[in-house]
Amino acid sequence: MYAKKLPSYLSRLKEIRKNLLGDVEKNLKSSQEGTTEPVADISDGAARAYTSEIMLNLGEQDWQKLKQVDQALAKISTGEYGICALCEEPIPEARLEVIPFTEYCVECLSKIEQDKASAVHRSEEPQTEDFE
Fold first, then answer.
1. Domain extent for 71
2. How far apart are CA 107 and CA 98, in angstroms?
3. Which pLDDT band, with edges at 50, 70 and 90, does 125 fall under?
4. The domain spanning residue 96 has which CATH number?
5. I need a surface site. Which of 4, 43, 60, 107 has the fewest CB within 10 A?
6. pLDDT, tens digit, 9 for 90 and up, residues 14-31
7. Residue 42 within any structural domain of the chain
């Protein structure tokens, strides 16, 4: 589909993957190094725990992004790259230029986000029960 641009997308995806793996390793080392030092007082321990939690959360975000990049690389090898996972229409090149590992076109992503938002809104509504 994007035969002329495919080498460019492949190169960018590999670079993103390389950078993510480096970031994940760095975050893992930082979170492990911080746990071996003695804690001077309880506030130092709380600050260290908070920092460690932030590092772990960043690590999770990086892992999610890495999975998306790996899926995009797999789709390149199977010829499915650039096809929306929901509507199965081609994802515009402009979107792939911005986010080469995207799974969805803008319209489908918007629909997914709206569905999630309405599900959260429904779950937050107070449940009323009739007591007789």
1. 6-123
2. 16
3. low
4. 1.20.120.910
5. 4
6. 999 988 887 666 666 665
7. yes
Alpha-carbon span 42 to 25, nearest angstrom: 28
Centroid of chain to Cα 85? 16
Confidence of residue 132 (pLDDT cuts 50, 70, 90): very low
Contact 69/13 with Cβ under 8 angstroms?
yes
Q: Is residue 110 part of a domain?
A: yes
CA distance 100 to 92: 11
Query: The tokens 């130092």 sit on which residue?
Result: 44
Q: Within a domain: residue 129?
A: no
- Residue 131 located in a structural domain: no
Which segments of 40-105 does DSSP mark as H helices, in order? Answer: 42-78, 93-98
Task: For 57-115, write each residue's pLDDT tens digit.
Answer: 657 788 888 889 999 999 999 999 999 999 999 999 999 999 999 999 999 999 999 99
Number of domains, the chain = 1
